[in-house]
Design goal:
The chain has 232 residues and is mainly alpha-helical. It has 12 helices and 3 strands.
């Protein structure tokens, strides 16, 4: 998925219509303007973007494939809600992938891209901004850069398939607990220091804490009772 597409705003007119519609709807969902459980109509988006229904339909199919929406016959596009189970499953999957990347970087003493430190500085610069959208985009890039630094291109491709869920979960979590940004930045700094030192033990400890379901977030998501009963 193109990292820059999510930064496109609705008023921009360059690029294929389906890409502009896709970017617009993605951003509206991530920012919470299209809330989980609500419906989006083709006509609504067609009018807002001043395009025909064909690119809207094409964008909707892509959004469904990426788990942003569910298309229901004769009802429209239902915005998916982040559930407690999805959050728990996503964090577990990320711990597996990112844990492997950490092990490979540390054991093979691989160099880290300068981009990781640059991304962390950009996140620090906007940590007090009321809008979390840019922070979430930078956060995803920070972790993805680490996975790519492992040198396993297929692993990076697998990680990319988590992107839409990663963004949705992160935006949802920060909307519930905005103060967590400061803890996230501390853990990013600790992780970066451990990776630079090739200290696998510390890096794994940090990522384990970083990617754990936080009770005050997950307890407010749909399905929490089921996940809790299963031993989360």
């Amino acid at each position: 998925m193109d990292q820059d597409k999510f930064s496109i705003r609705a008023h921009e007119t360059s690029g294929p219509a389906r890409e502009r519609v896709y970017s617009y709807v993605c951003e509206q969902i991530l920012r919470g303007y299209f809330t989980g459980g609500s419906f989006i109509e083709e006509e609504q988006i067609s009018s807002a973007m001043d395009v025909s229904r064909t690119p809207v339909r094409e964008a909707f199919h892509r959004l469904e494939a990426e788990k942003f929406i569910d298309l229901l016959p004769r009802r429209g596009a239902l915005v998916r809600q982040v559930t407690a189970q999805e959050l728990a499953d996503l964090y577990e999957t990320r711990r597996v992938v990112e844990g492997y990347a950490i092990a490979r970087i540390c054991q093979e003493r691989l160099p880290l891209p300068n981009q990781m430190a640059a991304l962390l500085e950009r996140m620090r610069a906007i940590q007090d901004a009321p809008d979390h959208f840019e922070h979430v985009m930078l956060d995803q890039s920070f972790h993805r850069t680490m996975v790519a630094a492992s040198g396993n291109a297929i692993l990076a491709e697998v990680y990319d398939t988590l992107r839409s869920r990663q963004l949705r979960v992160a935006m949802t979590a920060l909307s519930i607990n905005p103060q967590r940004i400061h803890r996230i930045l501390t853990e990013h700094s600790q992780l970066l220091d451990a990776l630079i030192a090739h200290d696998e033990h510390v890096a794994r400890e940090v990522i384990g804490l970083h990617l754990r379901p936080v009770f005050d977030v997950v307890s407010r998501l749909p399905g929490f009772g089921v996940v809790s009963a299963n031993g989360m």
